[in-house]
Design a protein that fits this description.
single chain; 1 helix
Length: 69
């Protein structure tokens, strides 16, 4: 009967530790995935921004030349 009082909490502790380890590894994988996505966005955004703004800048420059500014 005293053995039940020892095994129950120890078993609950072990199961809780295993679950915590599982959730931690799952969250670490998710964080790594999101960090790689952020890094990709940080490198692609300036390129896309320049590709979008260059034609506008050239058109404004051409317009300024035609107007004489």
């Amino acid at each position: 009967m005293a053995l039940e009082y020892i095994i129950g909490p120890v078993l609950a502790l072990l199961i809780g530790m295993k679950f915590t380890d599982y959730k931690t590894k799952n969250k670490d994988a998710k964080i790594a995935e999101l960090e790689s996505k952020v890094a990709l966005i940080e490198t692609e955004t300036p390129k896309k921004l320049m590709a979008t703004l260059m034609p506008v800048a050239k058109a404004v420059q051409k317009l300024n030349q035609e107007v004489g500014l």
